[in-house]
Specification:
- With 224 residues, the protein is α/β, with parallel strands linked by helices.
- It folds into two domains: 3-93 and 180-217, ATPase, nucleotide binding domain (Nucleotidyltransferase, domain 5), CATH 3.30.420.40; 95-175, 2-Layer Sandwich (Nucleotidyltransferase, domain 5).
- It is 31% helix and 26% strand.
- The chain has helices at residues 34-49, 68-85, 94-102, 158-161, 163-168, 184-190, 215-223; strands at 3-7, 12-18, 23-29, 58-64, 89-93, 105-112, 118-125, 132-133, 138-140, 153-155, 173-175.
- Strands 6, 7, 8, 9, 10 and 11 form a six-stranded mixed beta sheet that branches. The chain has a five-stranded mixed beta sheet with strand order 3-2-1-4-5, sandwiched between helices.
- Strand 2 and strand 3 (23-29) form a beta hairpin.
- The longest helix is centred in the middle third of the chain and has 18 residues, at 68-85.
- It is globular and about 50 Å long.
- It starts with a strand and ends with a helix.
- This is tRNA (Adenosine(37)-N6)-threonylcarbamoyltransferase complex dimerization subunit type 1 TsaB.
């Protein structure tokens, strides 16, 4: 299965192509330049992989939660490319991606949601299957995160951004360095757990209903 994966949910632009025998990837912090960097980097990866877009089987993308602008860029890019090449798309939650990277065990994923909040969910992860989500993905204050009865691994940049989360981690292995990575979408896409859909049916997973900060909220966030 030849796949392209796209993630723009954080300050990193993460792209990867699996041509069936080798993986080619780009994962770099670009701040707010996802839109201008994505297509040139994608063209370079396709050239390295010696593939044309229409030779792919599907396009996977991080559907959220994460940066609202970044999610729309990734979804729009996946849709546009898929339409042009006659391909299906596969939307995959970003927290599932982090859970897979974290390793086997009970994993609590916390991704910084700004506004003094985190996106979170608990997972049961094995070496054989896609992570099993133990609760719905939610958003809330770090002190309100619902912890599993026993967490083996605490993953995601929420643990780096909010020290109180680290303090609650106890004996759990801390993986605060983990962010959504395009390469991890390949195993998830192949698991069969996430449906292939027509590009027009691609959906985003915002989780938080409020998708924009007011000018006052933006100023308050900069001061923190």
């Amino acid at each position: 299965m030849k796949l392209l994966a796209i993630d723009c949910s954080t300050s990193f632009l993460s792209l990867a192509i699996d041509n069936g025998s080798r993986i080619f990837s780009f994962h770099e912090k670009v701040e707010q330049k996802h839109a201008e960097r994505a297509l040139p980097e994608l063209a370079r990866l396709l050239e390295q992989a010696e593939l044309r877009l229409e030779q792919l089987d599907a396009i996977a993308f991080g559907q959220g939660p994460g940066s609202f602008t970044g999610l729309r860029i990734a979804c729009g890019l996946a849709q546009g490319l898929a339409f042009s090449a006659g391909l299906p798309v596969i939307g995959i939650p970003t927290l599932d991606n982090i859970a897979l990277q974290a390793g086997a065990g009970t994993v609590l994923v916390c991704l910084d949601a700004r506004m003094q909040q985190v996106y979170s969910a608990s997972y049961r992860v094995t070496d054989k299957d896609a992570p099993e989500r133990l609760c719905p993905i939610g958003v809330g204050a770090p002190e309100a995160v619902p912890w599993p009865e026993r967490a083996d691994i605490a993953a995601g940049d929420g643990f780096e951004r909010y020290p109180d989360l680290q303090n609650n981690a106890g004996s759990a292995i801390l993986r605060a360095d983990l962010l959504p990575n395009a390469v991890a979408y390949f195993a998830l896409a192949r698991s069969g757990r996430y449906p292939q859909t027509h590009p027009r049916e691609a959906e985003l997973l915002y989780v938080r209903n409020k998708v924009a900060l007011t000018a006052q909220e933006q100023q308050q966030a900069r001061q923190k």
